[in-house]
Q: What sequence folds into this?
């Protein structure tokens, strides 16, 4: 199926109606990637926008807002699930401080090294 619709010498990315097989594949891949990104605690925005731009040929001005929307939906659902879990286990901490102590120094060193270039 064609990705772009051209009218009057202007081509735009086609809409989702009618939905194509490629769109279903992208939805499944993005859904699986969002499960992995949400469960690991990263946003996954770079993965979503890259996937949308290079696999589904979305222009950057459409892929980045769509990626932000996916991140918003995933973080909202994670927050709601955290609230439900917190109501069942009120003594459980939301932040795993052992992971924070492990990753923060590594990230600081990496940003210091990367920022010097």
A:
């Amino acid at each position: 199926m064609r990705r772009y619709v051209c009218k009057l010498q202007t081509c735009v990315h086609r809409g989702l109606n009618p939905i194509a097989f490629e769109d279903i594949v992208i939805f499944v891949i993005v859904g699986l990637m969002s499960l992995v990104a949400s469960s690991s605690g990263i946003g996954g925005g770079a993965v979503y926008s890259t996937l949308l731009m290079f696999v589904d040929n979305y222009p950057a001005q459409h892929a980045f807002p769509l990626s932000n929307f996916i991140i918003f939906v995933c973080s909202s659902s994670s927050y709601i699930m955290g609230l439900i879990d917190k109501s069942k286990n009120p003594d459980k901490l939301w932040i795993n401080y052992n992971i924070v102590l492990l990753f923060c120094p590594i990230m600081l060193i990496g940003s210091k090294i990367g920022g010097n270039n």
